[in-house]
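Hi Q.,

Before the meeting this afternoon, I wanted you to have the protoporphyrin IX containing FE prediction in hand. No need to reply - just skim if you have a minute. The sequence and ligand are here:
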Amino acid sequence: MNLTLKIWRQKDSKTKGQMVDYKVTDISEHMSFLEMMDVLNEQLVNSGDEPVAFDHDCREGICGMCSMYINGEAHGPDRGITTCQLHMRMFNDGDTITIEPFRAKAFPVIKDLVVDRMSFERIQQAGGYISVNTSGNTQDANALPISKHAADEAMDAAACIGCGACVATCKNSSAMLFVGAKVAQYALLPQGQVEAADRVKNMVAQMDLEGFGNCTNTGACEVECPKGISLENIARMNREFLKASIKG
Amino acid sequence: MSGFFTSSIGRKYAMALSAFFLMFFLIMHVALNAVSLFSEDAFNQASHFMGTNPLIQFLMQPVLMLGVVFHFVMGFILEIKNRSARVVKYAKNNGAANSTWMSRNMIYSGLFILIFLVIHFLDFWIPEINTKYIVGDMSGLHDGSFRYFHELQHKFIPIWRVALYCIGFIFLALHLLHGFDSAFQSLGANNKYTKGLKGFGKAYAILIPLMFIIIALFHHFNH
Amino acid sequence: MSVLDSKVPKGPIKDKWTDYKNHIDLVNPANKRNIDIIVVGTGLAGGSAAATLAELGYNVKAFAYQDSPRRAHSIAAQGGINAAKNYQGDGDSTYRLFYDTVKGGDYRSREANVYRLAEVSANIIDQCVAQGVPFARDYGGLLDNRSFGGVLVSRTFYAKGQTGQQLLLGAYSAMNRQIARGKIEMFNRHEMLDVVLVDGKARGIITRNLITGEIERHSAHAVVIGTGGYGNVYFLSTNAMGSNATAAWKIHKKGAFFANPCYTQIHPTCIPRSGDYQSKLTLMSESLRNDGRIWVPAKIEDAKAIQEGKLKPTQIAEADRDYYLERRYPAFGNLVPRDVASRAAKERCDAGYGVNATGEAVYLDFAAAFQRYGSEQAKLKGIKNPSKEEVIKLGQAIIEEKYGNLFQMYEKIIAENPYETPMMIYPATHYTMGGVWVDYNLMTTVPGLYCIGEANFSDHGANRLGASALMQGLADGYFVLPYTIGDYLSNDIRTGKIPTDTPEFDAVEKEVQDKIDFFLNNNGTKSVDHFHKRLGKVMWDKVGMSRNAPQLKEAMAEIKAIREEFWKEVKVPGSGSEMNLELEKAGRVADFLELGELFAKDALVREESCGGHFREESTELDGEQKGEAKRNDKDFAFVSAWEYKGEPADAVLHKEELEFNDIELKQRSYK
Ligand SMILES: Cc1cc2nc3c(=O)[nH]c(=O)nc-3n(C[C@H](O)[C@H](O)[C@H](O)COP(=O)(O)OP(=O)(O)OC[C@H]3O[C@@H](n4cnc5c(N)ncnc54)[C@H](O)[C@@H]3O)c2cc1C
Ligand code: HEM
Ligand code: SF4
Ligand code: FES
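Predicted structure with the ligand bound:
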């Protein structure tokens, strides 16, 4: 198929960007979206232009690098997938596809479609861990039984790949799904209890500091999240936060 | 609790609590108004009680006012903050693909409710305050009988006002169609036990405003 | 006598590690504060090492080319991690894990290292659980296990299909704690482009800031490389797009020996390539082979018709199908080890029986499993005389429970419903057992330069067992390196900060800068990918699943030719002072173009078949095993460690003889 692409080009964080139109031809419906981008880039390199910069690595939906806003949706029109798992069969010959970076004040553009997600890193550093040293003398793993239900729920929360689609999608650029998932994972496990109060307070404080917006519970994040992280995690975070605040 | 209400989540709690308060008040209000459908007398009695009981007048009423003001002021503050969290807007954004119109436009439905409330205040509340506290007539009587029911009917004679009320309540319904569930979610009540709330929320969001509309229409056609 | 000293401690194998730990020199806590360590790579190996070293009190600088440590390719591991916990009470033990790993590696690994790996494996699980890794549990709340890859016990721990992700997030959280404390300085989006030696010791690295393009100097008292495997030398693999050999190759060029480059694991169950535009391959869990039957059409006309899209697999009668694994290996059937299954698929496809448009795919068919599970279920549910459809439905439900997410993933990629039509699979490069040579201390042949995780050669011999790479990465990082590096650093407590304004740093930085300038000014005509694809094709065709001397020689010549053309014709747009993805790729491909040639040379020298390395010249000539791989323990029970001497073809071979005192060498048989 033949397509028109409208792509955000921006030289670096300081320069203003704009949408630029490109044409690609003979795209196979079996290609992945990023393979289509590879075709465009090969074309650009061969004609001496700079290829479009975009983040990607694993190309199998797990590393969380890829991050495109395609036709007005984070990771494009399909559900439960990342940009790298999107296939061209979702599009038709002659389509115009708009491709933008994930946008949020807390995700400044580095170049073209590449954004800086260090804000997520800082939130994790604020408390996204359990303080246990690698001594080799930790108690036996089975000395602490955890109900299957709690373990499964913690796993569902832990499945977040930190891609930032929730922020990109949210009309308020809120990071609550991402933070909620991390808080919930530890809140569900006995190992996480000791530091639970400080964790949620510190992570939320960092989240606020980074300039993410507030949650209006539109649920858009849950729909666009490639890993199906549930809004229940945000509710859990809110409860944990209240609990922690009351404790002082 | 230091810093709770300046945190993002704290603000959500505040927003939701004020909303709960308003939703509770709405039930009282609609219940009272509904009485007017069945009995002029009962409506007058009830109105007089509400209008003269010091507890309601000097405690509940200011709290309610504060609640409303707090709610919409907080709504505006959040909206401004949220807008500033995305500096460059998307060239193309397909919000309808992942969320309801209601959820994305709380500020607009809220604004319409606010406009409606202003008119509502001019219509009912200001004259009431005028009669009771400026003129100083606490009797509730007009020409020897209670004035409340007649005033109510009188207000709903002009069709434009009925139409305005209907529109106001449609926006309220839209606001609540998202707001009801949202308030529970904000308070952290979303898990497998709260699934039933969703249906109740829809019913609430539609039935309460509908009831107000019916009352308005009833009095328009039955004066 | 070779120059290689493996430094394996004396004593009985089961006491070596304990004795070693009891006798090494330690660095006291106050002195650790004055010691800097560079860790390149933040996958399971690098991430766990960085966190642990920081906990111990060293100043750690960690580097990754992605924007977060959490995105290292360890994240993609699905299946699980082995540990000799014996929670299932099925007779597992440290010895058995050790034995299975050595045997699985076709007796080409160092006994002492593998024993230590098995020994610390149990600690890994304890550590990860303490960190909050949500491993799967049974209804009693205890940890669940699955069995993996042809071993006789259930010792694999898992977290849904995302074990690597969860383990990496565990290590990442430990890192975050140290980053917050200021003990780890994290350099995301930084690529190591070379190592700096001072007086023969590793004392720093040169990196490029991938956002600004700045070339930076970083110094330390020791340098640890944990940059993963080099499977992308094949262009197509299950590795991430950015996975590269640059760090490993650059240290090789500065004196670290490179061991067994030809040992590569080609995984049999990957989603086949659909066309020339293909950029990477996706793994489907091996567990599918437990229930799927692998076949191709028995008649060449049918195969042709399928390739042209004129025939559907479901239209081929049972009698016209060739279940070639069951035919060739009646004992193990579809469950033969990875390398055997991969070669058999290639053999059929080379003979023209492949089943997709590219001719490079075989079927993995679940119809029989639907039937089997379906009738079982019908009986269990007391359904009398169930219809055919009912049975299939019931069976499909069971398969969905077991592999639902894999079936879904397949359908997303291929757009065919694998419940209705058989899946297509084909082998793909998955793991590289070879890597930088290290001694028992995980130190390379350069003092102060360590290598851990998939980047080193240790532990897996010529073939890696499923679920053992995660174990090795974490063992190296959490439990081995932190001890061994301390022994080395105890001599460095009075060294003081290593300055970066020295001639040694100047020289290496210049080398790096010159290379970058060359690329940017080359004005060639062909993209980097163009060369990478050509290299990949040579590697796949001639240094792939089965190898022979004439083709290996051709491969060496062809790779050299491609490399020369690359340096003349490569085109890299943009500038050096900004994010420039083509420039990043160019540097990586340049290194692959050298590594590939050494790879072929190594394969040429190893005139035996062992593990993932299959030499057509070295097969059983008669008997039941006719045509199967033949190992040659008499002449080849050694590690090939290559010393860099300019051109890859000139590399000098050093042999580390392998001794087997605790395990008896046996030939594998799956007939
Ligand atoms: C699809 C897939 C599934 C797998 N499944 C399993 C399984 O079920 N069980 C199992 O045991 N094993 C499995 N493996 C193997 C296992 O995942 C890997 O061998 C292991 O995770 C490698 O870890 P590592 O830390 O050595 O390297 P990686 O995780 O690859 O980390 C490499 C790190 O080095 C950095 N880096 C690389 N080059 C540079 C450079 N030049 N400069 C700076 N930084 C650099 C990267 O940023 C990254 O942080 C699987 C592998 C794949 C590909
Ligand atoms: C006076 C005019 C009003 C304005 C301007 C307004 C505005 C808003 C806004 C902007 C929100 C979304 C806040 C967020 O970001 O989460 C909101 C939420 C809500 N509003 Fe209003 N509103 C008004 C009146 C009302 C009334 C009269 C009611 C009901 C009786 C109501 C019920 C709710 C509810 C239930 C929520 C959801 C609370 C939550 O998400 O926690 N609002 N309002
Ligand atoms: S919650 Fe979902 S959308 Fe948000 S970062 Fe995690 S995986 Fe991405
Ligand atoms: S590239 Fe890794 S998730 Fe898309």
